[in-house]
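Forum: Protein Structure Q&A
Topic: Joint prediction for protein chains with partners

I've read a bunch of threads here and the consensus seems to be that you should model interacting components together rather than docking separate models afterwards. I'd like to see that in practice. Below is the full input, 544 residues plus whatever partners are listed. Could one of the regulars post the assembled result?
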Amino acid sequence: MVMMVTEVAAVNKQQVSTASAQSKILVDDLNLFYGEKQALFNVSLDIKEKEVTALIGPSGCGKSTFLRTLNRMNDLIDGVRVSGNITIDGEDIYASNDVIKLRTKVGMVFQKSNLFPMSIYDNVAYGPRMQGIKNRKVLDALVEESLRGAAIWDEVKDRLKTSALGLSGGQQQRICIARTIAMKPDVILMDEPTSALDPISTLKVEELITQMKKDYTIVIVTHNMQQAARISDKTAFFLNGEVVEYDDTNVIFSTPKDQRTEDYVTGRFG
Amino acid sequence: MRQAKDNLLRAMLWGSAFVSVAILFTIVGYLFYKGFSYISFDFIFGDYSPIGGGGIFPMIVTTIYTILISLIIATPIGILAAVYLHEYAKQGRLVRIIRYATESLTGIPSIIYGLFGAVFFVATLKLGMSIIAASLTLTIIVLPVIIRTTEEALKTVPASYREGSLALGTTKLQTLYKVILPSAMPGILSGIILSIGRIVGESAAIFLTAGTVAAMPDSIFSSARTLTVHSYLVTQESGDIGLAAAIGIVLIVIILALNLSATYISKKFNKADY
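Posted by a regular:
Agreed with the consensus. Here's the joint model:
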């Protein structure tokens, strides 16, 4: 506990932050290498509980790579090395090898819907079932709760047993969110969740994210700066694998301290 | 000019399709024309009589034995090997060598496998000329086919399924069993169907390992004669093309029935999970 406090202090010195909310994820001096090539440089972030944190930056700046360090999805790639420290609720996530436990606590929604070729019900029940929940009533309740949580229950409640792949792109993405919620995670990572959606579906997902932050800590990678401005509380601007600036979203978009941030958010590059 | 080219291409495509279908129909038609009159209840379910006029029931039984035993051994080994190569093995030199070896194995003439089976299974392992020796030889023949097609099928499973499943806190084994293998099932199945064709069509390797005893096998350790071997011997001994054609018809029906049931089983298998 003492260690955590000093870490918070250390991070706060680096990034001037309104330390109102509780810290959820603390990233300290994170470096990541793909073989010989370094993709992340000394990333330190203090991600607050029950807030939406947006990661912005041009393509290839490392924001998705960073996101994937938080649930250790990068472990799937051969030759990835990580140094530095990531703690969630004070626990070092790279200390133990229990990625299963980590990933049940830190859910992830991907860029494109990756529902399985199963029914809507089975998609949402997939994670809990794999945890060993078999009781039909418990699963039924969990599926309904998750679909309601993803604001899609009313649209699909009469066709739970039909293939999930017959839904529209926006609906599929919300089922993906429901599938993640069904695991009852603390943190939800989203990797450009609306980049493949039309404006109306995007709006629905954005509304959903805004509602969800009362229950979850959300970290979202987005290409869309308006989206970051609309839905996030804090924004981190990534460039070439470094965090250039991390602050309250309204500060980043109105009075950024770094010239590069200003150039990016005003659309001068990227 | 462009229009003419387009028409020419269309004619060629149509022509190729027509030729391939026509060949198939000609062969099947010829078989039926020559052999259909031989087909009767006694022919199919009767015991073989060396003085002529007997049925082919022992050969049907032997053929089905060899198919089932070979598949029961080859399918799990083949699928597991492919899963290892594609999902678990570190993609390096060893895997490349294994892959190259399996590919080379598919190109070896079956008589070589037959000789190997005769030396190894029949003689060294002292299984004798028997259905089991033939089935083990056939297992080696179809193993590369199953490994190859299963690997191809695994390649077609989108990486996003893997990520999606693992991100939900599942183990690699759960992901494999619940998401990857069911998605790859159609491809794996086509490998099994190809294998059935290969097994049924095989004669040289079986001739050398199971022998030619034209009687109902007592057990899988008996020497026996499959339909293809029988068809070859009948033609050679008596020159009775009609009888051989009738055996051909029976073979086609067996293959068709097995393929249909394989498809049916896989559909069932898929539905159970979805």
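Chain B has a mean pLDDT of 89.
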